[in-house]
Amino acid sequence: MQQFKRLVPLMNRVLIKKLEVPNKTQSGILLNSGDTKNPAGVVIETGQGYYDHKGDFVKISVKVGDTVLLPDFGGQKVNVSGQELLIFRDTDLLGILSK
């Protein structure tokens, strides 16, 4: 299969890179991989938005660089530039995380 360097989502789709889950703590304790589920990711690309049933344009509610909370299931896996990424609808994202 051909490798692509960039993917720009259409309409209300968002391209997400899932955050890596640490496999050990800062003090060196190894974590069980089953206990370290991380439903968060970083927005890599977004579509421009979409038109609702009334014909009004609805913008995407997240921007590139946002850290978002992902649902447990869903999303389309894609491989771009050797990275495994996920595509979600804007409305499927659960929230924006901040520190």
Automatic annotation (TrEMBL):
GO CC terms in record: mitochondrion
Record keywords: Chaperone
Transmembrane is among the record's keywords: no
One MF annotation (Gene Ontology) recorded for this entry: protein folding chaperone
Lineage: superkingdom: Eukaryota
Record InterPro entries: Chaperonin_GroES, Chaprnonin_Cpn10_CS
Family per record: Belongs to the GroES chaperonin family.
Stated name of the protein: 20 kDa chaperonin, chloroplastic
Gene source species: Paramecium primaurelia
Lineage, broadest ranks: Eukaryota, Sar, Alveolata, Ciliophora, Intramacronucleata
